[in-house]
Amino acid sequence: MKLVKKILAAVLALGMSSVLLAGCSDGAGNQSVAKIKESGEIVMYTNAAFAPFEYVDGQDVKGVDVEIALEIAKELGVELKVKDVKFDSIVPGIESGKAAFGAAGITITEDRKKSVDFSIEYYTSVQYIICKEDADFAKTEDLAGKAIGVQLGTTGDFLISDAIDGTEDEETKEHVKGVLEGSGASCKQYANAIEASQDLMNGRIDAVVIDKLPAESIVNNNSGLKCVKLEDAEPEAYGICVSKGNEELLKVIDEVLNRLISEGKIDSFVLAHSNA
User: Fold this and answer.
1) Which of 44, 123, 149, 163 is a Cys-bridge partner for 208, taking CB atoms 3.0 to 4.6 Å apart?
2) Separation of alpha carbons 87 and 104, rounded Å
3) Rounded to an integer, what distance in angstroms lies between the CA atom of residue 208 and that of residue 147?
């Protein structure tokens, strides 16, 4: 009987532990505010090759998004821990609870909203083309027959891939021909736009499509290149992502973003890191 009682006590204790742990999470991989405060740190996933929003400086990751993240950590009274990962692993990492939030100049899209929840918009951008100084590109159709570099999982990747492969009409389910379809154009995916630009300089590709400020940063740091606005690209808005249903953390992030925007701090951060 004593053995049975010990086993029952152990099972009961295990059950209570599970309940207590569940109180720190909603069971969907969410990192609750209570759990974050208890741990004393908040983990941010980013891809540090997207200056001025995130970049490596010595042993540290710096940039606009890091400045914002530090303000979020300060609001919660915890330390910020930044993890530099591949861009296309940020959303899965947030879904699984490996990080509390993702900030990497992430464009808010309907497709991404299926996997994560987004903060308010905090910056608006548009796609640019990086090319050699003697190239003459302005619109997507100007890239016909060209080898085009993109950062995997980004807006530029989706835009160029759709232009080459075409899309499907949501209502009719019929194929819609892309502006580069059948032109001989090709899309080469890279871990980041810096690597793509190196191949551009070495003549392996003809152009790179990436967001405005990272494009300008790359051109400023590499002679012989220029960047031009992709005329037919739509503006896009950046947001910070958290796991689905993590409303408490999202509220804190939105409050911090609203304050930083009203104080003009976001623009100040961009200016301060624009030479990275």
Assistant:
1) 149
2) 8
3) 9
The two three-digit tokens of residue 55, written as one number: 């970049």
Residues near 204 by Cβ (< 8 Å), separated by ≥ 6? 147
Asked if residues 190 and 151 have their Cβ atoms less than 8 Å apart, the reply is yes
Alpha carbon dihedral 130, 136, 138, 144, in 10-degree steps, equals -90
Q: What is the dihedral of CA 133, 135, 137, 143, to 10 degrees?
A: -130
Q: Are 143 and 137 in contact (CB under 8 A)?
A: yes
The amino acid at 149: G
Is the distance from CB of 179 to CB of 163 less than 8 angstroms?
Answer: yes
For the beta carbon of residue 10, count every other beta carbon within 10 angstroms: 10
pLDDT in tens, 204-231: 999 999 999 999 999 999 999 999 999 9
Return the DSSP state at 24.
T
Record the tokens describing residue 231, joined without a space.
């005329």
200-203 CB contacts, 8 Å cutoff, 24+ apart = 200/130, 200/131, 200/132, 200/149, 200/225, 201/225
Cβ atoms of 237 and 121 within 8 Å: the answer is: yes
User: Which residue from 239, 37, 268, 218 is spatially nearest to 119, judged by alpha carbons?
Assistant: 239
pTM score, two decimals?
0.86
Helix (H) or strand (E) holding 62: strand 60-62
Cis-peptide, bond into residue 52, ω within 30° of zero: yes
Instruction: Using the structure block, give the residue that is written with the tokens 């032109």.
Output: 183
